[in-house]
Amino acid sequence: MKMMNMMKISLLFLMMILISSCNQEEKKQDKKLNDIKILKVYCDEAIYKVLKSPLMTFDSIDVKVNLQITQTTAFDAMKMFLAGECDVILLPRNYTHYEDSMMAVYGVKPHLRMPVAKDALVFFVNYDSPLDTLNDKEIVDLILNKNKTFKEYYPILKKEPLLVTNNNKSSEVENIYQLVSKKQKINKAFQLLETSDSIKSFMLKNTGNIGIGYFSNIIGDPQFRALPIGFVDSSGKYVFPRTVHQSNILQGFYPYIVTYWIYIQDQNNDEAMRLARFISKHPTAQKYFNDYGLVPAYARINLIDER
Prior knowledge:
Elements: H1 2-35, E1 37-44, H2 45-61, E2 65-72, H3 74-82, E3 88-91, H4 97-105, E4 112-126, E5 134-135, H5 136-144, H6 150-153, E6 163-165, H7 171-180, E7 191-192, H8 196-205, E8 210-214, E9 224-226, E10 229-232, E11 238-239, H9 246-250, E12 257-264, H10 270-281, H11 283-292, E13 295-296
Parallel strand pairs: 1-2, 1-3, 5-10, 6-7, 6-8
Antiparallel strand pairs: 3-12, 4-8, 4-9, 4-12, 4-13, 10-11
């Protein structure tokens, strides 16, 4: 009987140890979960396809961060950012005039931002289009004067093309204003669509038009061609139309070069800064952008003259 009692006491003691051990393990797991920082990231839908891979790579290798990514328009991403509703945003544009004005009214200073990569805002056509080049001066004239037509400058066209691009909240529309019209009032009507992918879909169903979007969205797509554009550079020298290509973007031989930026809400946020440094400067991310056909922000690129 005494032996039975001792066995019961020993079993009870063992159960208490196991329960205590389980509780400690649960507390450790809770602590680990509490140590993970959720980082709210808003990304312009027009460039998310490009940025998804490096963002997912960072999310997998930084065990202390869990990225909560939202795809949206550039306007809505910046709206959430300025309202303090997210930690970082990824946009291929600068602040708009409206955003600059609102920040000045409320005494908000420009946020820390870091360049990620360079892309291009391109005018593109279906592969069988008769158009082969455009000219910056003529493009500006066409979009500032609603009565001007493409057929006046390019009589080879069978019909007057529509200018097809993303919606009014998009970075494409803002970059048309900032880079193409040079912040002059645009009077030309555009065919505005819901998303960046909608532009290509529309172009395939309605041939003979001109799409305006990012080079990254048509890289490697044999159905479309980005049109080379001649322009006068900042030194006053005329740059002849050249193939839209990574090397020509790097050398400044294209007029509408776009920078991807990562904007940081609080530079004291260690997790946000780690993400910014990774996507902006880490060799893995920079190699990815280079392989994609864009110009990495910080990677050293050696051009080889094959002539």
